[in-house]
Amino acid sequence: MILVEPAGKEIFKRLCSKFGELKLEIQDKGGKESVAIYLPRELRDYYKKQFGTVQYMGNAQSKPTYIDTVEVRFYKKALEAATVVELVRSYPGVQFKGNGENPYFHMNLYSFDDAMSMDMLFQKLAICFGKVFKSDYNNLPSQVIPGSIDELPRY
Fold it and tell me: Is 133 exposed, middle or buried (0-12, 13-18, 19+ CB in 10 A)?
């Protein structure tokens, strides 16, 4: 059995929505607790690999499993390709994890207020993307969020 804080579902959806507004592609790859974030196909010449992740986090050791956190990750190599490493690195609450081949910056969100506090970061990212990718980015529509995110987490 799995218990998910109701706010956790809303935080997860809000983060996915913000990535969609940022014109990034949200992919549900059928995993148990996360979605993958990519640059849209039109910008894949800049960076082809995964840009970020939105993932449910919790205590898998407890029975029932209790999920009380949503983690957002931004992969360092992707941020370097978009020239926004310093913007994300300097954002309050963001931590760095040197995860071998795939280091990333992450932030754990425990409340809806935490998720709303990220709005400024997403706004700044949109401005930077417009400068870096120019009309390739500015002419893109917002991305659609897969309906299957409502099924997450899957246990």
Answer: buried
153: preceding bond cis by omega (within 30 degrees): yes
Minimal CA–CA distance to 142: which of 13, 11, 19, 50?
19
Closest C-alpha to 7, from 62, 59, 68, 66 = 68
Strand, helix or coil at 70? strand
- Comparing 35 with 3, which gets the higher pLDDT? 35
Tell me if 24 sits within 8 A of 74, measured CB to CB: no
CA atoms lying within 13 Å on the CB side of residue 47? 21
Q: Which residue has the tokens 């899957």?
A: 154
Range 2-142: architecture per CATH: Alpha-Beta Complex (3.90)
Summarised one tens digit per residue, pLDDT across range 4-20 is 777 888 899 999 999 99
